[in-house]
């Protein structure tokens, strides 16, 4: 069993930072604005389960703008510091591990306090800086997108969507480099989920990065969840490869809203779009008016659409079809992300589209807007 013993000092640096430390011993030396003199500092254990509350471990009192914690940790342990009166703010995160750890509390933004002195805390500081930069950029783009959407500026929306794609690639590159530069750091496993946001990253790429992490990280709860995700990613990539451009569309069938079975072969036209969507998917519903306009214009020339829903609630599925005036054919097994047709095509995000020619050959994947219409018109003109 891992041991973690703590004892706090209420005196200002009762033990000097220069005192020699025993094996696995750590000393946290904190400085904080003197307005907090007499306030308590709470040391808490990071929760092991999502939504759980941190577990209290020890308490120190601020004297002369200083506080200390001293204890033992056989392995690096993620910990939080809460300042009395500031509990509503995000806590200070650090790793309790052998060595002298210095914490300079930022009274204006507590969670941005500086933690230095040991390997994992130095790397954590780099991660926090990177994460703050990425979060700030993401928030700025989101605000711009909302503003453009509300003003119905289609050109601005398209431009920001392109910026989002470039930002996603940039974020993937930066977090990938961070993990590869710090594979043994405790925080690296927590940085890994940022890579999973990329729609372009393959299983092989992600698995190669994951394999560089220590076994202890892989065996953690988060590591196990990532392993499960990667296995699903492996299967999805294989399915996507089997249904890539140039391949014959595999046969499939599912119930219509009326409960009758309908196959893809029965729904095909001169050009066929397989449209994977769901009533709960905001981007899907936003795109529907464009698809409706294209269908109304080109259906008479040979365009058919087969909607495949990732809904689970049949009533909401039917209501969305009626509300968005989706007059083409629809099917769904009502299994959400377990929809077998989505798995058959390796689809892990929606909206997603496949364009088929008259022979059922896949000629394009994941086109939207003007690009989708241009491809359909090109095929109808042949």
TrEMBL record:
Q: Which CDD domains did the record assign?
A: TlpA_like_family (cd02966)
Its recorded name reads Thioredoxin domain-containing protein
* Main location as per UniProt: other
Which Pfam family name is an example for this entry? AhpC-TSA
Recorded GO terms, molecular function?
Answer: antioxidant activity; oxidoreductase activity
Q: Which Gene3D superfamilies match?
A: Glutaredoxin
* UniProt entry tagged with the keyword Transmembrane helix: no
Q: Name one GO biological process term.
A: cytochrome complex assembly
**What does the entry list under GO cellular component?**
cell envelope
Tell me the SUPFAM superfamilies matching this sequence.
Answer: Thioredoxin-like
């Amino acid at each position: 069993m891992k041991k973690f013993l703590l004892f706090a000092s209420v005196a200002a640096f009762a033990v000097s930072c220069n005192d020699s430390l025993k094996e696995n011993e750590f000393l946290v030396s904190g400085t904080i604005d003197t307005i907090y003199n007499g306030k308590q500092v709470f040391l808490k254990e990071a929760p092991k389960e999502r939504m759980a509350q941190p577990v209290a471990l020890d308490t120190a009192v601020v004297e002369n703008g200083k506080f200390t914690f001293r204890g033992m940790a056989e392995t690096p342990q993620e910990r939080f510091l809460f300042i009395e009166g500031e509990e509503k703010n995000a806590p200070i995160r650090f790793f309790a591990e052998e060595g002298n750890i210095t914490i300079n509390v930022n009274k204006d933004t507590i969670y941005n306090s500086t933690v230095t002195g040991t390997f994992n805390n130095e790397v954590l500081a780099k991660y926090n800086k990177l994460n703050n930069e990425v979060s700030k950029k993401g928030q700025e783009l989101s605000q711009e997108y909302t503003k453009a959407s509300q003003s119905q500026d289609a050109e601005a929306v398209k431009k920001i969507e392109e910026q989002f794609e470039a930002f996603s690639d940039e974020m993937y590159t930066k977090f990938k480099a961070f993990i590869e530069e710090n594979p043994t750091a405790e925080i690296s496993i927590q940085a890994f989920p940022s890579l999973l946001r990329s729609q372009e990253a393959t299983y092989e790429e992600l698995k190669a990065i994951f394999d560089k992490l220590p076994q202890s990280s892989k065996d953690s709860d988060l590591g196990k969840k990532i392993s499960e995700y990667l296995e699903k990613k492996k299967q999805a990539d294989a399915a996507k490869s089997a249904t890539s451009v140039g391949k014959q569309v595999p046969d499939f069938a599912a119930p219509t809203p009326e409960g009758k079975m309908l196959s893809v072969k029965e729904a095909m036209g001169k050009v066929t779009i397989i449209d994977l969507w769901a009533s709960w998917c905001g981007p899907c519903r936003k795109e529907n008016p464009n698809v409706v306009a294209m269908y109304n214009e080109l259906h008479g020339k040979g365009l058919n659409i087969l909607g495949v829903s990732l809904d689970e609630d049949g009533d909401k599925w039917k209501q969305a079809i009626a509300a968005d005036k989706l007059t083409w054919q629809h099917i769904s097994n009502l299994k959400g992300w377990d929809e077998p047709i989505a798995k058959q095509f390796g689809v892990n995000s929606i909206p997603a589209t496949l364009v088929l020619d008259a022979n059922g050959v896949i000629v394009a994947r994941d086109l939207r807007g003007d690009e989708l219409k241009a491809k359909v018109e090109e095929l109808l003109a042949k």
